[in-house]
Description:
The structure holds two protein chains of two kinds.
Chain A: H1 4-71, H2 75-101, H3 105-129, H4 133-273, H5 280-305, H6 308-312, H7 315-330, E1 333-338, H8 347-368, E2 372-380, E3 383-390, H9 403-414, E4 418-423, E5 429-436, H10 453-456, E6 457-460
Parallel strand pairs in A: 1-2
Antiparallel strand pairs in A: 1-6, 2-3, 3-5, 4-5
Helix pairs in contact in A: 1-2, 1-4, 2-3, 3-4, 4-5, 7-8, 8-9
Chain B: E1 4-9, H1 13-23, E2 29-35, H2 38-48, E3 52-56, H3 64-74, E4 79-84, H4 89-98, E5 102-105, H5 109-121, E6 126-127, H6 129-146, H7 157-167, H8 172-179, H9 183-197, H10 202-211
Parallel strand pairs in B: 1-2, 1-3, 3-4, 4-5, 5-6
Amino acid sequence: MRERPTIVLLCGFGGLLLLMAGAETGALFFLSSLRSDNVRLQQRFLARNRQLEQIRSSIYLSGTYARDSLLAPEPTGAQAQKVALENLRASAETTLDEYAKSLDSEERAPFQSLRSEIDAYWKVLDRTSAWTAPERDKYRYEFFYTELIPRRTSMLQVADQIAQLNDQALQRGDQQLGLLYERLRLGLLAMILLTFLGGAALAATTIFFLLRLQGEARQRLAESLAARAGLRDLSAKMVRAQEDERRAISRELHDEAGQSFSAILMEAESLLELSPPNGSASHLESIRLLAKRGITETRNMALLLRPSMLDDFGLVPALNWQAKEASKRAGFRVHLSAGEQANELPEEHKMCIYRVVQEALTNVARHAQAAAVQVDVHNLPGKIRLTVQDDGSGFDAHRTRGLGILGMEERVAHLGGTLEIDSAPGRGSLLKVELPVANWKAESTSESAGPESQNGNYSHSAG
Amino acid sequence: MGTIRILLADDHNIMRDGLRLLLERQSDFEIVGEASDGRQAIALAQELRPDIAIMDIAMPDMNGMEATRRIVESCPRTSVIILSMHYDESYVIRSLKAGARGYLLKDSVRADLIAAIRAVMQSKTYFSPKISQILQEDYMQELEQKEQDDSYDLLTDREREVLQLIAEGLANKEIANKLNLSIYTVDTHRSHILRKLNLHSVPEVILYAVRKNIIA
């Protein structure tokens, strides 16, 4: 289905080009043959005209020679005239033979009569050569006027007739050429019309396919945009669902599992105080220790999933805890600077900043070999800016893009914010996130001296 | 000293049962009521006027810190001791701000609860040793990192004495009696202390004292 337009267009353009090329070479060839036909026709006409002229002049001359020989007083003179006459006769015969080679059907009958006339003429002339001198004197005038002149006249008439026919043949040839020329003209006209129509059809087809392609492309674009929006929506929903789930599990762990461990611990301690019989004390002690460990572990797990401070107090205490934990675990100092106003951020913004910091600190711990990390949350007019700067080994920010960074970008993009990473090997790294916040005013500096300022400006180092 | 009347507030029956079992072994302790959420705790406190309320933080309806604030407001004779799994500083600070007199971790109930009740009954504050330890460590690290001089060095000996008594929960009048000073002198000392240490309230003074290991 996809290849069909291509094939159609290829065939269309190829066919049109071939048609045009064929038409042009045909026309050129035809023109040149027309021209050579024309030349041949004229040459033939001229040649035949010349031959006829020759025959006619032979006949004239023969009349003259015959008269001279008849009128010659000396027989020797007559003899010379006779030889000349013979030559003339031979040349006339040759010319006649030549002319006979290119006879038209219409000329055949007149030519035959011309030939027989000429033969008869020669025979009449032959008769005079046998005459004696007295006979010549006696008959010559009569012969001359009653035989020779009329014969010659009729021969010349026949020759004229043939010349006329020749003329006609030339005209016919001209007409034929004219017809051929006309046919060529019509053919060319038809070809031009055909190529024009073909070109128009091809252009229409091309435009049709182009428009269809454009329409398809537009539709694809709309579809892919919709799909992307849908995907972003879905991922935002998933992030929200994940947070809800984490909160639920965290609460469940803390409130249910943790409390149960606490109760077990207390029961065990109560029993231990009743000074139990010999064997069971050690068992109770191990139950007590297990319960204690259970409390610690469920609490840590719950906090890692989602720190309860985030819901109970807000962003800054949660970040504080996060900074403290990272310091304890990873062995670098984390300095946090954040105004209390950050606690009033909308839930999704708080969550986004908290998770981005969490991810960033995890990355630093994993890759950076840093000694210190500075986390800053700045309130700006209409937006909040988070920066995480470490003094570690850095990385090539253009090439390394882990899943963690993608996740951060996704969260930030969903809130309409920007995420930049500036890092190079040996230069540490700086993560900068800016989130727009509706109806957000920049914090006044005096506010930070409030009773909880110690919370907002806290640093922790590895223990 | 008469019977110490105690209110238990925790949303887990099993936890309350355990506490009851532990506390009733003390002959002078009496459990007067049990609440399973914050609102119930406030209502019972106002009705029963207990000496001590033992309060979980994570409770449905209203959390323990808010309930503490309201109980301290409406029943000044009732002292609240927080019993929680949270050991993060933010919970300790906010509990103190709400007016709690003690903060215990649930994994050290047996060791600390009775001592805490007795200390609080003597107007003192009480923290689980682990809490004190965490707060002190944090404080030391903070000082180290900010490379600041310890502002405690700025205090005079008399001011240090007054600081400790404030942190132990004594009112100006009691401090004046104890140190043989006029109440105005004590008040002056108090304001000097707060200014030098950049503190703003009694809970902050208590927290500071714990972090400095002045009180436990």
